[in-house]
Amino acid sequence: MYGFEAMTFNIHGGYLEAIVRGHRSGLLTAADYNNLCQCETLEDIKMHLSATEYGPYLQNEPSPLHTTTIVEKCTLKLVDEYKQMLCQATEPLSTFLEYITYGHMIDNVVLIVTGTLHERDVQELLEKCHPLGMFDSIATLAVAQNMKELYRLVLVDTPLAPYFSECITSEDLDDMNIEIMRNTLYKAYLEDFYRFCQKLGGATAEIMSDLLAFEADRRAVNITINSIGTELTRDDRRKLYSSFGLLYPYGHEELAVSEDIDQVRAVMEKYPPYQSIFSKLSYGESQLLDKAFYEEEVKRLCLAFEQQFHYGVFFAYMRLREQEIRNLMWISECVAQNQKSRVHDSVVFIF
Amino acid sequence: MERQESSENGRESNEGISVKEENILNFLDSVDGYLILMDSLSSTLRQGWLELASARHSMGASRINSTLFDHKLHPASTTLQVNEQSAGPDRELPHFTLCKWASSNNPEKYFEEAKFGEDELLKKSNSLRHRDISHNSGNVCFPTFRFDCLGKMTRDQGFDLEALGSISMRVLKPVTNPLEMVVEISNMRASLLCAYDQVQKDMETATK
């Protein structure tokens, strides 16, 4: 139940909530996307973005422009905004904001470990890491040979340490184990974030529970579909599902034994919130499922702004910006590859 | 007698002209086939690049990037066989065949051959490496790149649990169609060059 947040929230969180709502109004609109979709070259995209909040970040970029440069600069803007909010936040908001970046930290750890396995240079790998997921000792990940060393040498001093208890083994790191490690870490992170939000209580707990439950359910579906036809056993697949969400526990039981996409659809259609997602797809199709999930996620994230005095707006804003960057990346790729007919395949409008 | 000789000469020259025309037609057919294959390959690769961008969009740039390429040498699971085929009297045509998922009883043999780096392949492009002299055929093994999220080419146990977090992985099937097309283009090019040689010989004969 809600507490008296309206009376006390603004003392510590009012300023930053106002800031994040101001940032939210800078998100690109459908009109912006229509203009961008009609661009012929990346220079045109740069010109259109110069009139938006991305302008200062792109104006000094020399020609020829690359799609990776556009994504990099847009991400830099998000990182700057995040750091400005983080340095002004007090507890528990500062911890909440840090939680938002742990997913990127996991991705960076896996990137460094995978790249090292493939004998890539550490500097090259560090350049490819997501800036939101950086931490001080990240470069030392390259020396670890197995998960125990990974934990002992590097990760024990990072926020990811508690998530490693489920996947510490002495097995050598190889591609298969790394992928399972990634998903196990992410599961532990989601559960921990969920528990933290529940402890905060009030509107934050309610809104974040819904958003994180959707994330957990989406991951369960993705894991199921991607592991169909592989040697991942049902038990191993079940272990990768989070222990919360709308699908927990009965949906997970059915997903664990699904052998094709139509069985997954049959499971998901029993849950009304996901019925609309799967109704958009024809039988046997999974390619549009990604976009359908993104659209549903954006809808839920936008709804978070309809309420005040909770931390969900910060999470929602970060996710919406990431979606916007994905949209810009896709539009840039379609323009660069002269495939403008496909530009609307993956763009998800936010407003 | 003279009339008979001249009619025989005329018949021979008619036959010679028709053979020359046939050679020219063969050459033009080869060129046409070659251009169609090149166009098809270009279209397939274009599609492939967009699918790659789509995967990067869904899974994130940190999961789809060049760090997934493995710089280690692996036994090649797809090899190219080059054989010599007879294309007429005193003529041999190289014929390329793609051998996929080839398994060897002696994996070290494959590893030995896969030690050819790309540079060495370029330097030795005109010399064929003979795996077995008795078969009198050359095998060229390409070093295999391991794609963590894109392909399953080197995973012997068939466990292709490459990426679980995003559905787009299913969109990226192992890219074998372009390889087959490249081999087809190589064969078409070989026959094109052979037809061109023939046409050139006919022209030289005609000028003499």
TrEMBL record, chain A:
Protein name, entry field: V-type proton ATPase subunit
Xref: InterPro entries: ATPase_csu/dsu_sf, ATPase_V0-cplx_csu/dsu, ATPase_V0-cplx_dsu, V-type_ATPase_csu/dsu, V-type_ATPase_csu/dsu_dom_3
One of the record's GO cellular component terms: vacuolar membrane
Keyword RNA-binding in annotation: no
Family the entry assigns: Belongs to the V-ATPase V0D/AC39 subunit family.
Subcellular location per the Swiss-Prot or TrEMBL entry: Vacuole membrane
Species name: Forsythia ovata
Superkingdom, taxonomy of origin: Eukaryota
Gene3D superfamilies registered for this protein in UniProt: ATP synthase (C/AC39) subunit, domain 3, V-type ATP synthase subunit C domain
SUPFAM superfamilies given in the database record: V-type ATP synthase subunit C
Topology with respect to the bilayer: Peripheral membrane protein
Keywords from the UniProt entry: Hydrogen ion transport, Ion transport, Transport
Example GO biological process: proton transmembrane transport
Assembly and oligomerization: V-ATPase is a heteromultimeric enzyme made up of two complexes: the ATP-hydrolytic V1 complex and the proton translocation V0 complex. V-ATPase is a heteromultimeric enzyme composed of a peripheral catalytic V1 complex (components A to H) attached to an integral membrane V0 proton pore complex (components: a, c, c'', d and e).
Function: Subunit of the V0 complex of vacuolar(H+)-ATPase (V-ATPase), a multisubunit enzyme composed of a peripheral complex (V1) that hydrolyzes ATP and a membrane integral complex (V0) that translocates protons. V-ATPase is responsible for acidifying and maintaining the pH of intracellular compartments and in some cell types, is targeted to the plasma membrane, where it is responsible for acidifying the extracellular environment. Subunit of the integral membrane V0 complex of vacuolar ATPase. Vacuolar ATPase is responsible for acidifying a variety of intracellular compartments in eukaryotic cells, thus providing most of the energy required for transport processes in the vacuolar system.
Signal peptide: none
Chief location bin: membrane
TrEMBL record, chain B:
The species this protein was found in: Forsythia ovata
InterPro entries: Vma22/CCDC115 (IPR040357)
Lineage, opening ranks: Eukaryota, Viridiplantae, Streptophyta, Embryophyta, Tracheophyta
Name of the protein in question: Vacuolar ATPase assembly protein VMA22
